[in-house]
Design brief:
The protein is mainly alpha-helical and about 210 residues long. It contains 11 helices and no strands. It folds into 2 domains: about 90 residues, Orthogonal Bundle (Rna Polymerase Sigma Factor, Chain: A); about 70 residues, Winged helix-like DNA-binding domain superfamily/Winged helix DNA-binding domain (Arc Repressor Mutant, subunit A).
Length: about 210
Amino acid sequence: MTLPTADGATAAARADPDAERVAAALARDLDDGFAELVRTYQGLVHAVALRTTGHRADAEDLAAEALLRAYRSLADHLGSDRGAAWLAGLAPRPWLLTIVVNTRRNQVRDAARRPRTDGGVVPEEPTPGPTVEDHAERREVTEHLADLLARLPEAQRTAVVLRHVTDLPLTEVAEVLGCPVGTAKSHVSRGLARLRALIDDGAGTPVAAERGHR
């Protein structure tokens, strides 16, 4: 298995071609514009949510909460006197993914503060068989690599997911993470290095076996 390089050589860094259309829809009408925003970016939202939480049910909860927060934020901004100016400077994709990442951080922090009362791990409910979306996700990141991603520190995992699962350019990764581009690149580089180390150490045995057959 070959991991991507930190500078994104496996995919071209492209500007968001949908930003202008989504912003224009929001300017015309909040509700219709938000529906357009969801249609355009819901795949990215769910991909980031799934790869940062590692569990489908948690990802669905995260995506739903993040979208609710996004709608409330839009309503607050567009209902203000400075709404037009704010919207003119809005980059919808990194703005929305920033909300997803920040919502995830809040969930992790709240979970760490909340005492356990059940004395054990709550079993997950059985999930239905794979859907078309499931197969598409597996093409983006193999199940073995997804397992290894869950072992990375939060910042590194999020950076790798944003850069190499959702194919965001480093400038947008940095915007979402709220850090300089150099720091974002470092998170991606260290995350990829950690993934390679896990593979080489045999942490992902099926992946290592897959490499051996190539």
